[in-house]
Design goal:
Elements lengths: L2 H4 L19 E11 L5 E7 L10 E4 L6 H23 L13 H20 L4 H14 L31 E2 L35 E2 L21 E2 L30 H16 L5 E4 L15 E2 L5 E2 L60 E2 L25 E5 L5 E5 L8 E4 L3 E4 H6 L8 E4 L16 E4 L3 E2 L6 E2 L5 E7 L10 E6 L8 E4 L3 H9 L13 E2 L10 E2 L2
Parallel strand pairs: 7-11, 8-17, 9-14, 10-19, 18-21
Antiparallel strand pairs: 1-2, 1-4, 2-3, 5-6, 11-12, 12-21, 13-20, 14-16, 15-16, 19-20, 22-23
Helix pairs in contact: 3-4
Bound molecules: S-adenosylmethionine (SAM).
S-adenosylmethionine binds next to strand 12 and strand 18.
């Protein structure tokens, strides 16, 4: 196709750019394509200026676009407009999107699954993989009107394309290309080492070691990034060159092996795919279910469960925020807490009494809230950039994949697949937003999943409350945070944060943030009742074994365990 004169697609997502011994940087030319894997995670095909491989291909695949977020946004918007326009033209009906919905996604994921199924089938039959896969890719690449399944670079109505279908993007500063080594569609072996100078990735987080099969030798080794039936054996040896891990952005979302004692059951796979797909709709990383302890396929009680990564589902009678009362800022470049209009109601100040944000420039939570305070992030009426604003952190999609795993004694719990820095915001507690009266009425299992939103509530019950009280129940809908267990020595905490709502409505989100650096696959825990812990400390541990009414024994195992929890 004519488009290949502009770029020749790469089929080598598994390249290693880190050990090529050069520091040469390459000019970024533009995004030329995208694809979505079976989990709904998107990656982009990048073209670099004046660079190509020995075979003439000159693009790389990249999932972490943090270095080029403005270009990514431009591309995403352009593609979305194109698809919407195509839909409008074809159906003649008005297309309305729910927040966070990407309308072409379901079809795309289904087709990506089809490819993966073909791949697995080939494995089962022990066929020479590359012959088949090459054919599949050839047919995809030679198909100029592919409906957006694999590539979106040159569809009909692409006004931003030149005559050959290549998107025109502005010139970018010099960056180093990097390659996504973990795509589920990746099936090609690594390029031989003696090729011309290769691009070097920008210094960004080094992925945690990925599990590989025992003898990485044959043609198809390293080829499959997603094998849900494979058993991990040992991690890859550490590479020589040390890449400094930026605390603010741990390893990018990646496809991992699922570790389980036996092959994952269809129920397991379905749940994992559903949750990951729903998370991906909100732009968030994958969610895996792992049970290395017993035969339980999936956590109990999830039949009919509705996954919502980033918003509440309001029960009948719970008011919606009125957008006209949102205080917003008019910052054009970077927000500054002292002048940001949306910070008028914020109480967070530094030692000199000047308003400051709750986050560092690396988007880590500073833990500078006093009791009764909440973080006010920039909102949908603010003029600042939704992705780069330093005061939009809890509202960003989660970039860390999560494993919901079976603990030895405490049901299911959660952990991250990568190391986490202190101050990393991982997500918010979602579910059904209900009144406090309704929360009190609810009984049984549901009780275990109810979180009170009590930022403005007085300690003393006799004090008249100014605000309506709400709670969040994640028994029937919610996200991965419903599986966070309690520990008396937790490694995360919760803080209240608002955006797109007025603080007075008393419906903040509860964000989970790490309070220490956490090694990958360590269980993530919070203290369910920090006030009780404080009292326990004050009483110097007296009454440790006396269970308050309605409490149950705590089995967190911490040295300083207070002995009980209340839900
Ligand atoms: C929000 S759920 C946490 C997820 C839960 N483990 C599951 O499998 O669904 C809270 C429930 O987990 C259990 N739990 C969490 N932490 C605990 C702890 N430290 N000691 C005892 N039970 C705990 C209790 O049954 C509690 O009601």
């Amino acid at each position: 196709m004519a488009r290949r004169e502009i770029w020749k697609p790469s089929r080598r997502p598994l390249e290693d750019w880190e050990n090529d011994g050069t520091d040469r940087e390459w000019e970024f030319s533009g995004i030329v394509g995208e694809e979505i894997d079976t989990f709904g995670v998107k990656r982009y095909e990048i073209k670099w200026k004046d660079w190509q491989r020995a075979d003439g291909t000159n693009t790389t695949w990249q999932r972490d676009m943090s270095d080029m977020s403005d270009v990514q946004r431009e591309w995403d918007e352009m593609q979305e407009d194109k698809r919407l326009e195509a839909a409008r033209r074809n159906t003649g009906v008005k297309v309305r999107l729910e927040p966070g919905q990407v309308w072409h996604e379901d079809a795309t994921i289904e087709m990506a699954r089809g490819y993966e199924e073909q791949y697995r089938e080939a494995l089962r039959r022990n066929l020479k993989l590359y012959a088949r896969w090459d054919n599949t890719l050839k047919s995809v690449h030679s198909d100029s009107d592919d409906g957006g399944q694999r590539r979106d670079g040159g569809g009909a109505g692409d006004e931003s394309s030149d005559s050959t279908g290549s998107p025109r993007l502005p010139k970018r500063k010099r960056l180093r290309p990097s390659s996504d080594r973990t795509s589920s569609m990746a099936t090609q072996p690594q390029e031989p080492r003696n090729n011309p100078p290769r691009p070097v990735p920008p210094s960004r987080p080094k992925p945690t070691p990925r599990f590989v099969r025992d003898s990485p030798s044959s043609d198809d080794d390293d080829a499959m990034a997603v094998d849900l039936t494979a058993r991990p054996t040992r991690p890859l040896p550490r590479r020589r060159r040390q890449v400094v891990r930026s605390d603010s952005s741990p390893s990018p979302p990646r496809t991992t092996f699922v570790r389980s004692r036996s092959s994952p059951s269809p129920r397991h796979m379905t749940l994992q795919e559903q949750w990951t797909r729903m998370a991906a709709r909100a732009g968030a990383a994958a969610i895996y279910f792992v049970n290395e302890v017993n035969a339980e396929e999936v956590p109990p009680g999830l039949d009919g469960f509705r996954y919502c990564e980033r918003h509440y589902i309001r029960a009948v009678g719970v008011p919606e925020p009125d957008e006209q009362y949102l205080l917003s800022c008019e910052c054009e470049l970077s927000c500054d807490a002292q002048v940001c209009g949306c910070q008028e109601l914020s109480d967070i100040v530094d030692d000199f009494g000047d308003k400051v944000f709750a986050y560092t420039d690396q988007r880590q939570f500073k833990d500078n809230l006093s009791p009764g305070e909440e973080v006010i992030e920039c909102n949908k009426n603010c003029s600042c950039d939704p992705r780069s604003c330093p005061n939009r952190v809890a509202q960003q999609p989660r970039d860390v994949p999560i494993e919901v795993f079976r603990t030895e004694e405490c049901g299911w719990g959660v952990r991250a697949t990568s190391d986490l820095p202190k101050g990393k915001v991982l997500g918010i507690y979602t579910g059904e937003l209900i009144t406090r009266e309704e929360a009190r009425r609810r009984t049984g299992q549901s009780k275990s999943y109810i979180f009170d939103l009590d930022v403005h509530e007085a300690d003393d019950d006799s004090v008249e409350e100014e605000y309506a009280k709400y709670s969040v129940d994640s028994y029937r809908c919610g996200n991965w945070t419903r599986f966070i267990n309690h520990s008396c020595e937790p490694n995360m905490r919760v803080y209240p944060v608002v955006w797109d709502t007025v603080p007075e409505l008393n419906q903040p989100y509860l964000a989970f943030v790490t309070t220490q650096t956490i090694v990958a696959r360590t269980e993530l825990t919070i203290d369910y009742d920090p006030k009780a812990t404080e009292e326990h400390r004050r009483s110097k541990g007296k009454g440790r074994r006396i269970l308050p009414e309605g409490a149950r024994p705590c089995i967190c195992g911490a040295d300083s365990c207070r002995g009980w929890i209340t839900i």
